[in-house]
Structures are given as C-alpha cells and as structure tokens.
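Ticket #4471: structure output looks truncated?

Reporter: J.K.
Steps to reproduce: submitted the chain below (521 residues) through the standard prediction queue, then opened the result file.
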Amino acid sequence: MGADGGGWRGAGPTMAAHLGAAAAEALKMAAGLGVREVCARSGSLAEPVNKTCSGERHRGIHAAVRKHTAARVKFGLRSSPDAGEDGCALAIGQQQCLEDCKFNVTAKTFFIIHGWTMSGMFETWLDSLVSALQEREKDANVVVVDWLSLAHQLYTDAVNNTQIVGKTIARLLDWLQENPLFKLENVHLIGYSLGAHVAGFAGNHVHGTIGRITGLDPAGPMFEGVDPSRRLSPDDANFVDVLHTYTRETLGVSIGIQMPVGHLDIYPNGGDFQPGCGLSDVLGAIAYGTIGEVVKCEHERSVHLFVDSLVNQDKQSFAFQCTDSSRFKKGICLSCRKNRCNGIGYNARRIRHKRNSKMYLKTRADMPFKVYHYQMKMHVFSYKGLGEVDPTFSVTLHGTNGDSEPLSLEMLDLIGLNATNTFLVYTEEDMGELLKIKLTWEGTSQSWYDLWKELRSYWYRPVNSSQELHIRRIRVKSGETQQRFAFCVEDSQLTSISPGKELWFVKCTEEWQKRSVSNLL
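Returned output as attached by the reporter:
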C-alpha cells in the first residue's frame, strides 16, 4: 500500500501499543508491494548555500539530528513521462539546479508524495501518476518527493518522520518563493496515504498558502480523530480535496482515515468495498494468503481514480453531496442544486464556504471508472400478501443508446404503502435518453419456516395467498444530466406485479419534464 501515518511527534511506544499486533499486521499487508528500485539521480537534499533561505539555524545535537534527517528527503523533477526516468535533483538554495533541470517558475508545480513502505522502493502507481500529470499539464513541473529511507521504518517511526518531511517541503517552497515569479497558488501537493498528511504539514509550515492539496486515501492509524494541526486539514491549502477508498476496519484498524479532513471529502462506493478488489470475502482472502493484495487494491484505488480523472476527460465522474452512505444508497442524494455535485480527482473544484463536505458516487471495477447514476421513485398504491418479507426487484433500462443489464433494486427499507419508495441504480454505459423501463419481480427469499407456513395455508385454509403489488408510475432522475422523467405503466389496466412477473413502463405523455444540468449548477 503506502499505508501511511501522519505527523505525530512523541507518539512512541504508547501509540504503538494502541495500534496492536493485528493493526500492525494489517498495515504490513497493505504496504511495500513496490516493484521498481529507488531513483538514483534524485540526489539528497543539500544544505542551502544561502543560509537564510531555509529560515532556520541548526544548533546543538537535536538540530544536527533534524538536519541529518531532512537531508534524507530528495526532490526529483521529472522531465519525461517515461516510466523509470529518475528525475533531475533539486536542492534548496542551489539556483543552478533549477536552471539545469529546466524548472519553470511560472508554471503549475505538482509534488507527488508517497506513503509508508515495507519494501523501500517506489510503487508502480507513481510512474502512472507522473505520466498522467505530464500528459494533462504539458508545461507543468512534476516533482517526486522521495522520503523512502524515512518511510521504510516501523509505522510509528514513519509517522514521527512526517512532520520533518513536511517541513522540508515547506523550506523548498519558501526558497522558491524568493523568485517573485513563483506563486504558491500554482502549487498542488498530491499525497498518498501517509503522504497526504505530509502534504498537510508542508501546507501548515510554508510561508503563505498553497493552492491545492489532494489527499489520496489519507492514512487512518494515529490520525483518526486527532487535532487538525496533527493531520491533513482544510487549513493547509486554499483547496483540500480528499478521496477515501478504504475506510472499513480490517483486523481492528481502518487503513484509510474515516473522518472528513478536507474542504471536499469524496467516498467512492461508500469508501469501503471497491469493485474488483474482492474485499467482500475477507476470510477467504486471509485463508488463501491474498489479503495483502486485496487491502492494497482498496487503498490504492484512490490513486487510480485520480489518474483516471486526468486521462479520461470525456468520462468524468461526478460525486453527490449526502449526509451518509446509507442515504446515498437509497438514491436520495442526486441533486446538483446549490453546488451539491462535483467532479472527482483532478476535476474537483472548490466551493466557497464549504468544509468537510461529504460526497458519494458509485464506480466501475476498472478504468474508466465512470458510471451513470439514476434515482428511481416507485409509488405503491396497493399490495397483498407481502407480510414482512421484502420482494426482490430488478429493472432493465431501455434507452436511445441501448439496453442495460437487469439492475437490482437494493431494499434498505420495507416497501411502503401509499408512500414513495426510492432506489439508486447505476449503469456502466450511457443509456442515452430513457425510453422504457421493465420492472421484474424476481421473487422473495424465504426460509423453510416461511415455506411451511405457505403449505399449511394452502392445505388448511384454501384462500388466495398470492403476493401482489400495484404500481402505476415510476419517476426517474439522472444524476449526470439532472433530467427528470415520469414513466407510466404501459397498459393502464395492468398495474399489478407478482413474483416471477414483469411490468413495463413508458414515458407518461403528460409529464415530459426535463431539466438540464446547466440550469441547476
């Protein structure tokens, strides 16, 4: 992974004990599955030639230790999107380095900050992110922050090193600001896992305010619930956006932080089970020895979502503001009114006066991750024989671009009579304009006791115990376009549906109400 921690000074043995053996093991599983050797040319951070540019004097043994530790942080300016390119070493106070490396002081500058590592090597995602940034922003400076020697430690030690790494980045930025053409507003720090908190500490210590920080599944252990000064927070940049992809506890610890820590906090798929990662079968993964790969997949999905936002500009994903994941799963939160929806990853935009805004979306298992969200409101005006067992429904959408697969309706509440039942469905392909909807009752899941009751009812009370629902209308709203449609039952004389049957709906001719997303943003 890069299951990182943040900058807790003095966390030491007490916090290590709190983590526990199980938590430490989970972190080990998620970290250090790197492939490539450490860059050779990203030279060590040199002592500034101009002593005043660092803004600090080193005195005594503690200062000497800090100086030595900071010297283990390296900055490599990548000049090519080619995987494996080492980068040109930058050093504080060394103007010649900027000239030799062709650093563009007026361009956007990205800093990529890795997380905790068990291998001491860069992970494969780093080259993908460098390449995507250089392809999207061709004139930008892309700097890789190499603190591998400080991250390749016990987790608690790596956590304690994050403050030093963050301050070292801040020193570099302060020195760069001596050139009036260099603007902090053009700086974008991108930190993965523990690196997200490093970015926060850099933003906290720099003189001025950084333009943007993106936290890619910031590390949870030793950061959950702590004071904002000890973790990534909205105070660290003009805009702090965060992707949370692994907030579910495994072996007693949440690898990614659960709490919102930015202006905009996005939880793809609720922030826990990511499609294609297989974490739904945790026990099986442990049994087969694959839990490390599963955890890495969940945690690292944040990076791949960010890369996707850079390279697939025609497939931009949108997230929707909601109070919690449960309400989002009900389809309640697909509004774009009053800035309630936003792009994700690189395409996220700052909304003034908002902090800790929680947003949700569904994704595919592979890149491009974009899906198409639909809210469905189904009004049941009569039913018979349901009891306390919920029916199992699916819908098939028929649009101008084709037909969807049957989509399950997740029942989070009991079906209500004379009430609006709301559901969320999503498709991996753009259906275009919806034309028809097929509602199918797949049947009910019954226990042996339920079946026995039905048999007794059949033999001893020969009354009609069939199950039926009467539905006249389904209202649909597209999250991506914000269009609304009303679909009426195709045959007004046939409004009932029972297990194993289907019901067709077509657009209600008197209620063709469309509202474009442009009118709502």
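Triage note (M.O.): checked the attachment and the full token line is present. The chain has eleven helices and 23 strands.
Status: closed, working as intended.
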